[in-house]
Write a structure and sequence with these properties.
The chain is mainly alpha-helical. It contains seven helices and no strands. It has one domain. Helix 5 packs parallel to helix 7.
Length: 169
Amino acid sequence: MNTILILIEMICLVAIIVQDYTHFAISWGWLPIIAGIGIYMGLQVLSPRLLLADYLFSIFFIGMQFFVMTLWYSLKSKKWVNVSKEMIGWGDILFFLVIVFSFSFSHYLLFFVFSLLLVALVYGIKQKINPQTEKRIPLAGALAGLFLVVKAGYYLGWIPNIYSNYLLW
């Protein structure tokens, strides 16, 4: 059963990568599948109470990120800025939320920070090399690619338990 779910998850992630890089949009139908598999796999490792606490911390963290971004850009431009319309797409936001269900809070923080830094670095270098390239970043696709690598590493045993908070505590 787990092997089939892992394959389905990988197919969903590859589909998101392809869609976002080709159309700068993703089909939202992939997201509940990835979330459901993440929850199921998490329940194999931790109790529902511990998982729920991690999920709530991670969702609160994302909410704070978007609140601070909205506040920062609104103050900077001296008018209300809706970051979900002007800066980041709903597919990207929903992907941030969906991957919450595949990590403990500490691992989610690490994935979130390092993946965004890596994506910013790669696309910054790309813009320096070729300033004529597309300015938009297929963020959900890039994160799906990194998430695919992390999940493959976890399933192959190369990455420690991504559902455990022992990493930071």
